[in-house]
Structures are given as C-alpha cells and as structure tokens.
Amino acid sequence: MDRFVFLLATGIADGVVFALFALSLVLIWRSTRIINFAAAAMAVTACYLALAVTDLTGSYWAGLIIAVLVGGTLGWAVERGVMRAARDPLSGVILAIGTVMVLQALTGILAGPQSRPAPVPFGDRPVIVGGVPTLSPYDLFVIAVAVTLTAGLHTLFARTSLGLQMRAAAFAPEMSRLLGVPVARMRTLGWILAAAVGALAVLLAVPGELGLDPHAGDPLFVSAFAVAVIGGLDSAEGAVIGGLLVGVLVSLVTGYLGAAVAPLGVLALLALVLLVRPAGLFAGVEARRV
Amino acid sequence: MTAALEIRRLTAGYGAEPVLREVSLQVPDGQVVTLLGANGAGKTTLLRAVSGLLPTTGTVLLREQDLSDVPPEQRVRRGLAHVPEGRGVIAELTVEENLRLGGLWRHGRTALRERTDAEYQRFEPLARRRKALGHQLSGGERQMLALARALVAAPDVLLLDEPSLGLAPQVVHSIMQTLRDLCDSTGLTVLLAEQNAAGALSIADRGVVLHLGEVRSDGPAAQIAQDEALRHAYLGY
C-alpha cells in the first residue's frame, strides 16, 4: 500500500507537468487548428535563456519570468515569421518540424549537447507522511502553478471578451472577421500564450528529468501529445485530466512492471480512448456546420 | 434620398475570371434593396465584395466614406453588418456568446446588455435558449440568431444573404416581415440577396436583377414584380 501511495503521488506530480505542456498544444490547436510540433524545441530554447539568467542573477524566479517572456516572444516570432506561411495543416506540420531542426541545431551549437542540471526553488525530497514518502515541496509548487494557470486560462476563455474572440477566431475565422474580430491578432496571441505555457512546463519538468539538453523536451512532447489526444485536443479540462491520468498510469506501470513497459501502457490507453471516443475524453459533441 | 451604400463599377471574383463585372448600384437610406437572380448571378459575390472578403476593383461607399482599403473587421465598426449565406452562426458558441460577439465594438457593457435584451424581446425563442450551442438550434432559430447578432451591432447597413434558404415558408414570411418592420421602425438600410424573388420583392423598396455578374434591371420592387418578361427570363416565376 505504501508503495502504491508513493507511486500515486509521483504520478500526480509528473501528470501536472504533462498537463501543462498539453495545455500549450491545446491552446495552439484551439486558435489555429495546427499541432505545434515545435513546441518542445521552442520551450527548451526559452529554458536555456532562463537558466542563463538564473546563473547570472542567482535568482530562480528571475529565470522563471525570463522563461515565460522568452517563450511568449518565441511564440510570436514563430507565428509571424514561420507559421503564417502555412497554407494548410500539412504545410503547418512541415514548417513546425523545420523550426524544431533549426532551434535544436542552434541550442546544440551555442550550449553544447551535454545535459546541464537545473535548480529548484524548494526542496525536492518527498515529505514522509506516516512513514510513506509522498510529494516533495517542489512537487506541491508545480501542482500549485498548474492549478493556478489552468484556472486562469479557463477564466480567460470562458469569461472574458478577449477569450471569446480567440475562440471565435479559431472556430470560424471568416465569420469572426465579419463581426469585427481581429483574427490574425487573436492567432498570434494564441501562439504567445501557448509558447509561454510550454516554456513554463519544460522549466518545471527539467529538475525532475536528467537536466536540460537540446532534446530535453522531446519525451515531454510525446507524453503531452498523447495527453492532449486522450483529453480531446479542444479541451483545456481534458488536458488537465488526461495529464493526471497518463502521469499516474506511467508511474504505476513503471513501479510495478518496469520502466520499459510504461510507454506501452500509454499506447494502450491512447488506443482504447481512440477506439471508444475518437475525439478524446472531454471533446464536445462534434459541431454540425451551420 | 441619400444613398447609405453606393457601389461604383465593382469588379470582383475568386480567380482570374471575374464573377462581377463593373456593377454599380445604390441602396438609399432606410430602404430594403433586394438583389435577385439565378444561381451564379453574383449575388453572394457582391455581398462578400462589399464586406471586403474579396479583392475588388471599383468603389464601395458607406455614407460617402470610401471602404476600398478598409479590412473586413474594420468595416463592421464603420456600420456595415453582414449575415452570410448559411447564417454564419458559430456552432461551437452559445446563443449568448454569439450575441456578445455581435456587439463587441459598438457599445459599453451596459448599452450592450440593453441591446442584447432588446433582441431577446424581438426574437423571443432565443431568450429561452441562451445557453444552447449554435449547432443545437433549428434552422429558424439560427436565422433569428444571425439577424439578432447583426442588429446588436446597431449597423447602418445590413447585408443579408439568402435568409430564406432551407426554411419553412411560414418562417420565411415571419423573417421577411420582421425585416420590413425593422426598416420602418429603426430606419435600418438593407441589401438583401435572395433567390425567393417573390418573397423578397414583397418587402423590398427596390430590386436589382443580376445576371452573370452584370446588372440587368434596377428599379422599384413593385415594377420588377409586375414585369412578366423579366420575371420569366431571370427570376424563375
């Protein structure tokens, strides 16, 4: 039982990071109908700059702010400079993969291929409750960030005029223009938000992984992509619940059956969801075009 | 009477070959002008060109302001509303959200609420379905929502494309009558593209017959309705 509680706690901690990164993918899908395959490379690039600032200033928080700012700026630059050339979803995917290659090559050249450790602002040793190791203070910090961010994004999309315009621009760009919505600006804003969230997710994930290297975001992207599909690409709530599901599943399968079996567990869950609800667990009923 | 909307020598299309060729017409202030013609005559293309969705040559004047270089999202702020063919209700948003989008640019929060409430009163079935998603509405309700959303913006000129498409005759009659009443009570100016020529002419002040992208006739609605040769040749009744 102790082992189960420990694995559950670890799974939740990993799951919230998956959820955050999946949220980044969902945000771009919602605003442009494109899967951003460059999300991880963009986030890792922002994290390199964040860690450089932390090294310079000695402040984790300065680095965190830089990660968000640089992530957002990269989102703006990639949308304006690259993705606007996409004429259809396929060319969007190809442009995104090209962006990955450029960013990974650049970070490799400038920072080297070796992995570097990342600092944490709080202790990362699990707190022992009743003799059972549970979440660490850092895990609790990550969960708090994820919950706050999810609530903020939900409020933005559900309750504000800006969020309504972003949703409208994604669902019906031409009609939205006729209603006065600046669609191009809404898309850019979607990319900025998504890239900032992605950078934050990778910065939070790096201490728990082997450290930061040009490919550090790749495994996270694969897990988060599975999470986004399981939850429903349109659903922020789906990303959160899907993230927790996958995080706990990976942790339990790793703990009881071995790390090599964990990807198979995710694959089985993905296949099951795609068979039962192809649009994802939290996708709405597919809208009839009117 | 001054023209709320004036179109001068407008040419527009989707590729190399233009669909509209040097079309000129005026929509007088407070009147309903109906665009008539068979499929492919250029009615929808004309409305899309006026809204700025298509590249054009020629001039579009809204209350004497040239809209040529004004993008579509700015034209609504100048007082032009467009209800496209198929209604353009955003299926994934609720009735309330669709209405909020309509009034984004014209009002403060209180004024927007007042205008939204006024539209709920005008189109009562919508008031009962505020939280319903666009795709959950019937065809008639969607048409009401599209109209209400355009009216929340308090436009000077309303472009309306095929409002009768796919609707039962009594719903069409009710929508046409609502439109006429609106023009009479608020002074709204309407450019209405419609295949249901008899229905459109019954509420319009003027009619413009398009054929293969060119104006074939432009005159009082009653006169067009009585012109048997014109009706047989271009309007199909």
Automatic annotation (TrEMBL), chain A:
Source organism superkingdom: Bacteria
Pfam families membership: BPD_transp_2
Locations listed in the record: Cell membrane
Membrane topology summary: Multi-pass membrane protein
Assigned keywords, A-Z: Amino-acid transport, Cell membrane, Membrane, Transmembrane, Transmembrane helix, Transport
InterPro entries in the record: ABC_transp_permease, BCAA_transport_permease
Residues spanning the membrane: 6-27, 34-53, 59-78, 90-111, 140-158, 189-210, 216-233, 240-258, 264-285
Main location: membrane
Family membership: Belongs to the binding-protein-dependent transport system permease family. LivHM subfamily.
Protein's recorded name: Branched-chain amino acid ABC transporter permease
UniProtKB/TrEMBL annotation, chain B:
UniProt-listed InterPro entries: AAA+_ATPase, ABC_transporter-like_ATP-bd, ABC_transporter-like_CS, BCAA_Transport_ATP-bd_LivF, P-loop_NTPase
Superkingdom in the source lineage: Bacteria
Keyword Lyase: no
Keyword Nucleotidyltransferase applies: no
GO MF annotations, alphabetized: ATP binding
Residue intervals of the ABC transporter domain: 5-237
Keywords: Amino-acid transport, ATP-binding, Nucleotide-binding, Transport
Protein name listed in UniProt: ABC transporter ATP-binding protein
